[in-house]
Structures are given as structure tokens and as C-alpha cells.
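Changelog note: in this version the structure field was regenerated for every chain. One regenerated record is shown below for reference.
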Amino acid sequence: MVRLISHNLLACHAKGCTSNNFPLQFKDVTVELREQESNPDFLKNIMPRLEWKALVGAARQLGDTSLPEEMPEMLDDEFLKNLHHVLFEIHVEEGAMVCPNCQHVYPILNGIPNMLLAEHEIS
């Protein structure tokens, strides 16, 4: 399923698409919220690996404005709660992700993104 933690890792790999291929933009999506148990230690450990601006932008595309523009230095309980919600509880069920460079469309069906490329799209 497409959660923003996995979306934060995805880039376009279509033939010739080597720059401006991240982050993929959401288009015509259906979102479902699902509660999940939080693990503050995991959140603190994964934060340095996140592409923060891409995460905040994706969350805002999906209607969530709870994260600040810049990654905070102080990690209070409210911030960790919001980060957990954005990374793990927002599920994109249907729609598409579109490359900002080549406009390749990656469909999302039943929460699963189809990242496979046709043979002529492979570099």
C-alpha cells in the first residue's frame, strides 16, 4: 500500500528520466486513514533518512498540513504524533503518481503502486 514513508523513496526510472524525477506527484487519489500503533524511537531514527521537503509536499497534496516546512530540531510528543500520522496512517488506495519530469504515470490500484515499466521505457 502507498503510505508516505514508501512514497518518500520512490522516483521515476523511465528511460532518459534522470533529473527532476523525485518526488512523484499524486493525481486523482483516494485516501484512507488507518490507525496504527506508534513507535517514537523508530520515528526518531528514520527522520535523518527522510527527504523532508518531499514528505511535507506530499502530505499537503493529500490535505494534511500538520508538519512544519522545516524539520524541527526539538522533537516533542505532538510533532512525533503528527509525523507518525503522516508516515503511517495516511494510505493512498487509488489514483496515480506522476513524474514531474517526464510525466510518466504510475497507477495505484487497491493501495498498490504499479512501478513496472514497459520494455521500451527501460533504460
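Spot check on this record: Helices lie at 4-7, 40-46, 52-61, 77-89. Strands lie at 2-3, 25-33, 90-98, 105-109, 112-113.
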